Amino acid sequence: MVCNLGLLVEPRTDGETLSPRLFIPGDEVKGEVVLILTEDENIETILIDLKGKCKTKIVIGGDRNKQTHRYERIFHTQQRVLFQGPFKMRADTYQYPFAFQIPETFNYTNYEFRDQNWAQTYSTSGPKPLPPTCLGPYHTDFSSEISYHLTARVPKTNLEDSYVLNFSPSRRILDPAPLPKKVDGYNCSTYHRHYRLTAGGRCRALTTREAMTEAFRHNAATSTVSFTFSATAPTAIVIGRSYTVDFILTSPDEATSNIMPSFTLKSWTLILKTRTDIRIPGKGSDHQKLLEDLINISSGTLNSSIRLNRPLRVANLFPEGKIYAPPTFECMAVKRSYDLDLKVAVECLGETSSFKVKWPDVTLYPAKVDAGVREAIQAIEIGTAQLGIRQQGGLPAYDASAGPQVEEELPSYGVAVQGSAA
């Protein structure tokens, strides 16, 4: 058989800029399957399937006692017959259009697992929301995967082509409150800098000899500044939306009459720490494992001056228009939750101090809003326009700048919740 089968999905036409392309319930996946024959061939059938699959793997024991447990379930499937033969087809190019509408739920039957309280949503049978695409983490002995594939094929041949869909449930809340939370640096790290003044009244670091002397006997010409770090960040995050983070260096020494040295915020790294709980049915009890991984949200160099006891607001630390992780979710064999970690480097008198801040249990909301919510907003906008009312509501606007921006004046960030150190 001399031929080729290709699957083409129509490009988006709605102007959406999310990357990679994201499908939500109600979306229509359209395209065509192209069959190219270079000689006459007998073709029996051409099919295309849309399947959602959940897979987990857990290896228990080692050496001779190693046991590999696997779970696989196709929880959603749709199929279209594009061509029904058998028929001898002439050498030519054939195109078959297709369309699938992605549903919101699938029918779950609760019979495989022992632990009925592992995932509250799945403690009973019935309609359940389709889980988001979640590829990984992958390790040698443990792995998980939730995936959606379009597959075009000619049965009884090796002709096949597939397309991987990036799917997510839709967001039912238009504009979730970001729930900003202030957290101190990990272990409440406090740094100290000894310094002296030059003849011109500028702060300078101690020389090596002065530092050695100061270790044994304090010199009246030596001043000390102590400082700690804290930050305020959102704990409810819409994927693909930009947020600001507030940095603050706190020092009790600023209240003294001493001249303070300058501080520079050198660099940052913002990280999502993923916690993926997986399970596999067992005879006596389910096999369970917690997988942890890190997703780098953003990192770079700022070299921005930061004043003691005054918040410094930095925008665009969260990449806008980018799908960097699945939303928080649970399904029959996989649960995903997140922590947020921030690492910063602060320079003072030529010496750099590193701080780390942790926000446990942050919530990631889906990137795209539910169609019903979107239609309601559009109806309000059309109605106000027809009445001649200037529209003040609608979807909130966000800064589309690519890089981080330090804001001089801090607008209201909402009421921050004081949190304990991570």
TrEMBL record:
PANTHER family in the record: ARRESTIN DOMAIN CONTAINING PROTEIN, FI21816P1
Annotated GO CC locations: cytoplasm
Name of the featured protein: Arrestin-like N-terminal domain-containing protein
A GO BP annotation: protein transport
The species this protein was found in: Hyaloscypha variabilis (strain UAMH 11265 / GT02V1 / F)
Arrestin-like N-terminal domain mapped to chain residues: 21-105
InterPro entries: Arrestin-like_C (IPR014752), Arrestin-like_N (IPR011021), Arrestin_domain-protein (IPR050357), Ig_E-set (IPR014756)
Similarity comment text for this entry: Belongs to the arrestin family.
Gene3D superfamilies: 2.60.40.640
Subunit details: Interacts with hulA.
